[in-house]
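note to self — DONT lose this again. spent like an hour looking for the file last time. sequence + predicted structure for the chain T wanted, 99 res
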Amino acid sequence: MEHITITVPAGRVLRGKALAGVVGSGDMEVLFTADQGQTLTIEITTSVDNSRGRWEALFSRLGLVSTLPAGQLVIHDFGATPGVARIRIEQVFEEVSYA
């Protein structure tokens, strides 16, 4: 298991919490808690060793297509593909934006 922490600038403030996915399904679980800060801190626990570069690239792309929200993002990954990871992350951001 690998533990990765990434901090990226945030450009919008949301309120609330959201959960998407289920790690026990062989997929991934993403939990987001919004705050009033200026960064998004991402804590990743993954079964895929040496994957920091993949995660950094994913958040770089997400930051290009939308403004990332401030808060804490906790990801429990069981080898999900980058496409599934992006969907789960976007799901929690969307859910909180409607809170």
